[in-house]
């Protein structure tokens, strides 16, 4: 199900590492926050509240090389459940527009395909964790794996490179392929943006999708 049973609108941002989705979200937030004020909630996964952020630190710690892949997937699902219960659902019940950096599709792509533990299995695990709640819109920022990895090497603070960033190209190729399968399977929800364009073009395309899906927030003062 989507979030249509709730008052608010839920939009997730997805993409391979180095796609620029977080930078785009930052730019979009700067534009929307003055317009929407407390009707806007911007959050991230894993994280978004103290418990989920604590789980995030365990998952992404580069020292945790012994972490089992299923353990990793379960930790993501646990962080997601707490994030949903404590942050996303209250915001949606309060009729807010929620923009979230990553959600279920990330787990399907990264753990299901990247870690090769099964896309269907990870999807089912997260269906339980989320009680089937999916975004009204998912904006997928698409770049080839080699492009994303070059961007990470060129621009990211070495202290912020995590366990997933240092995986080999084949891992990131599997992740991207899974995202593209998800987009093909759910074109009504997942909209693709070519993230090899300039940052300005990417942000403009994402804003257009947000306005289309959440138009009531901008046209009627929802």
Automatic annotation (TrEMBL):
Biological process, per Gene Ontology: dTDP biosynthetic process; dTTP biosynthetic process; dUDP biosynthetic process
EC number of this enzyme: 2.7.4.9
Keywords (A to Z) from UniProt: ATP-binding, Kinase, Nucleotide biosynthesis, Nucleotide-binding, Transferase
One Gene Ontology molecular-function label: ATP binding
Limits of the Thymidylate kinase-like domain: 13-204
Binding annotation for ATP: 15-22
Entry-linked Pfam families: Thymidylate_kin
Protein family: Belongs to the thymidylate kinase family.
Organism encoding this protein: Levilactobacillus namurensis DSM 19117
Free-text function comment from the UniProt entry: Phosphorylation of dTMP to form dTDP in both de novo and salvage pathways of dTTP synthesis.
Catalytically driven reaction(s): dTMP + ATP = dTDP + ADP
Name of the protein this chain belongs to: Thymidylate kinase
Signal peptide range: none
Matches recorded under CDD domains: TMPK (cd01672)
GO cellular component, one term: cytosol
The protein's enzyme class: transferase
